[in-house]
């Protein structure tokens, strides 16, 4: 990414603050002019003092000259202070507000992406978090550097150079000569740092991700006594980062030293040339002080310019990853605008192939239908592609080949929010947010009164257990057991009350009695809805109106429980295994007597 592209991408975010920017630039010009006052006053002082020394001391004249100079210097300092305060205030306002806008925009973009975006290795939680944070931080710094720091510095250096040239072209040329040397050293420095910076960025992302992973899996780490192994993995990353940081800093010190030499050389040259003119009586003694101070006004900003350039090149590296992430239209849900009141909820997959972003083909030439008001079940061994099919129906992913129809129209023609509003999901791993039980259930219907939340919890066989908790519905939901969390997800679904239900192992982590209660509740809300259920629990499968048997991503059988069982094959094997694992003979003998 180059500067032009970066400014073009940043401009939409900066535009809102163009008034503040213009004001900051105005203050900049005033500040740069003020910075030249001191050298001029010093030149005048030296020359005046020299003239005063040539004649007998006139106390009145001396005190007038001294008080005037003190007044000018104090007034200049006061004005400079006000200008700097104004600049800092404006710069902070632009920076922090723009950071907030960038965060808003990033969140809006990211939550609208397809799940396939989050399935990519480079987009794991920790890495994304680091990229967003570092990206926004670098960009806001860049705006401050570009619009608030660089311009004042350049203005200051330019005004000082103009003044030097105005005084003497020879001294001006000497002062200017140092600049290309400076620029060359800075460019070399940046060039050498580029790859190191990329390494640092990559390691930082991996480190954040590894730390997230470690904290998330702390139970597994402890149960397998893998503390030492995990420490080793973190240690490698930390040390690789440390080595790169050391190389980065070492290069900086070296080049900073070179630049300091160039600057000192400049001062010596300006000094020598000015002395030459002074001794030839072409300049006053005050010119020595004036030129040295003006040269300082040229070199000081240039010295800072490198810091800015440095931060800027770092920002370019981070900006690249950041904009790649927030401008990724490939993962934006491309959906139409269709919304229909005559919703039937008839879904159909037609010759659907689906390949995950990592290249794994999960579905091959799938044809299946979810009929309105009917219960459809997907059965198959682990990894057969059942959840993948459900993900496609929920619109989380798009098929690689083939089409998904909803009431005869391609699913992609529908407004995606409209479809998701009408579809309720209970997944294998139901995410419970940080928050109370009440907040987590209410997520199904944000404006639901408390009574409705309680009613949903009752239907999900959760209410009684919640009431036994010391803080009832105000208990932190993540502190509940796996089965209780599963029921929070089911209560959430009851509250949402959608016409289509997609259930992936809805009772996976529940005990037998709760499973039966939930089954009854689900049976009650299944009436007149389109339902898809995936379950390894045969009692939930047998009642389905239509069952599809999946094997290695393909539909290998369809029908009712009875017809599929008669056909034999995988379905029969699954049912028989289920029956055997339940030890049906003994169970029947004890239960039925
Ligand atoms: N996010 C993913 N990225 C890549 N491959 C995936 C992803 N999710 C699933 N797969 C792969 O796709 C195939 C089908 O997985 P899927 O989860 O659909 O199976 P399933 O029938 O639901 O299995 P289970 O009964 O164990 O839940 C598997 O081989 C799995 O490894």
From TrEMBL:
Major localisation: membrane
Transmembrane recorded as keyword: yes
Ranges where the ABC transporter domain occurs: 347-577
Record Gene3D superfamilies: ABC transporter type 1, transmembrane domain, P-loop containing nucleotide triphosphate hydrolases
Keyword Transmembrane helix: yes
Membrane topology: Multi-pass membrane protein
Keywords: ATP-binding, Cell membrane, Membrane, Nucleotide-binding, Transmembrane, Transmembrane helix, Transport
Protein name per UniProt: ATP-binding cassette domain-containing protein
Annotated source species: Larkinella terrae
């Amino acid at each position: 990414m180059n500067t032009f592209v970066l400014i073009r991408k940043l401009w939409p975010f900066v535009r809102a603050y163009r008034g503040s920017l213009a004001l900051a630039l105005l203050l900049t010009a005033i500040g740069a002019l003020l910075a030249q006052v001191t050298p001029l006053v010093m030149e005048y002082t030296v020359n005046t003092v020299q003239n005063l020394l040539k004649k007998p001391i006139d106390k009145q004249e001396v005190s007038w000259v001294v008080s005037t100079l003190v007044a000018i210097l104090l007034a200049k300092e006061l004005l400079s202070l006000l200008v700097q305060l104004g600049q800092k205030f404006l710069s902070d306002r632009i920076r922090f507000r723009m950071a907030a806008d960038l965060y808003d925009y990033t969140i809006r973009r990211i939550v609208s992406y397809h799940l396939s975006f989050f399935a990519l290795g480079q987009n794991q939680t920790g890495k994304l978090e680091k990229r967003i944070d570092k990206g926004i931080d670098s960009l806001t710094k860049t705006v401050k550097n570009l619009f608030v720091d660089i311009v004042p510095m350049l203005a200051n250096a330019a005004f000082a150079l103009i003044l030097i040239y105005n005084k003497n072209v020879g001294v001006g040329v000497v002062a200017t000569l140092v600049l290309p040397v400076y620029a060359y050293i800075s460019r070399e420095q940046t060039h050498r740092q580029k790859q190191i910076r990329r390494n640092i960025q990559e390691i930082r992302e991996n480190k954040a991700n590894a730390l997230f992973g470690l904290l998330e899996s702390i139970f597994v780490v402890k149960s397998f006594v893998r503390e030492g192994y995990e420490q080793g993995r973190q240690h490698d990353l930390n040390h690789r980062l440390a080595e790169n940081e050391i190389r980065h800093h070492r290069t900086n010190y070296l080049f900073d030293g070179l630049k300091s030499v160039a600057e000192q050389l400049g001062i010596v040259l300006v000094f020598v040339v000015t002395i030459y003119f002074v001794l030839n009586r072409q300049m006053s003694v005050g010119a020595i002080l004036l030129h040295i101070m003006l040269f300082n006004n040229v070199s000081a900003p240039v010295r800072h310019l490198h810091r800015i350039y440095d931060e800027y090149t770092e920002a370019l590296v981070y900006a690249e990853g950041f904009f790649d992430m927030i401008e990724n239209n490939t993962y934006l849900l491309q959906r139409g605008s269709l919304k229909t009141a005559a919703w039937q909820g008839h879904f159909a997959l037609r010759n659907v192939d689906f390949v995950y972003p990592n290249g794994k083909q999960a579905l091959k030439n799938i044809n299946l239908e979810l009929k309105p008001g009917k219960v459809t079940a997907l059965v198959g061994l682990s990894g057969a592609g059942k959840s993948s099919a459900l993900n496609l129906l929920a619109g989380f992913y798009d098929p690689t080949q083939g089409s998904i129809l909803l009431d005869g129209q391609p699913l992609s023609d529908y407004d995606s929010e409209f479809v998701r509003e009408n579809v309720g999901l209970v997944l294998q791993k139901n995410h419970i947010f940080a928050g109370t039980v009440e907040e987590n259930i209410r997520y199904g219907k944000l404006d639901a009164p408390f009574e409705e939340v309680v009613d949903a919890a009752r239907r999900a066989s959760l209410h009684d257990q919640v009431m036994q908790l010391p803080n009832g519905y105000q208990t932190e939901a993540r502190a509940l057991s796996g089965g209780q969390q599963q029921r929070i997800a089911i209560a959430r679904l009851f509250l949402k009350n959608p016409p289509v239900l997609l259930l992936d192992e809805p009772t996976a982590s529940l005990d037998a009695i709760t499973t039966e209660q939930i089954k009854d509740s689900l049976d009650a809300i299944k009436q007149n809805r389109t339902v898809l259920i995936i379950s390894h629990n045969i009692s939930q499968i047998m009642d389905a109106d239509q069952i599809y048997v999946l094997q290695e991503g393909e539909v290998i059988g369809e029908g009712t429980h009875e017809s599929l069982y008669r056909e034999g094959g995988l379905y029969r094997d699954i049912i028989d295994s289920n029956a055997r694992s339940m030890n049906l003979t003994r169970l029947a003998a004890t239960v039925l007597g």
